[in-house]
Amino acid sequence: MSDDADVTRQLIYEDDLVRITLSEAVDPPLLTLAGEIDVTNSEALRRALTCCRQDRGQVDVDTGELAFIDLSGLRVLIMPSVPPAESWIRLHNVTAYQRRLLTLMGWYYRAHPEAGDPTLWAFP
Length: 124
Known about the structure:
- With 124 residues, this protein is an alpha/beta fold.
- The chain has helices at 42-52, 71-78, 96-104; strands at 10-14, 18-23, 30-37, 59-69, 89-92, 108-111, 120-123.
- The chain is 23% helix and 34% strand.
- The strands form two sheets. Strands 1-2-3-4-5 form a five-stranded mixed sheet. It has a two-stranded antiparallel ribbon with strand order 6-7.
- Strand 2 (18-23) and strand 3 (30-37) form a beta hairpin.
- Helix 1 runs parallel beside helix 2.
- The longest helix has 11 residues, at 42-52.
- 25% of the residues are buried.
């Protein structure tokens, strides 16, 4: 993932808990999540991800600024009903808390084979 210091972020969604921004100048598009994702806003996250998916390609999601995410939010990001080979969401900056939750749920990470950075894909 490239340094996004020079990339303009567009506000996609904001409520009292979370702010979702999009950087379209990078390929694939990068969604940055800041705050908290729970059952009250996980559907907005799903809509944001779907809208940002260009030409049925990948969407990168930076979760490093999330202070909290519950199971409803994790399910949106991990898409457990989608076979791993068809997953189109790549997670970046996954925190220790998020890794622990994913491990407790029986999901795991592996490095993406084409990524030259610590990009992680999560699989059920």
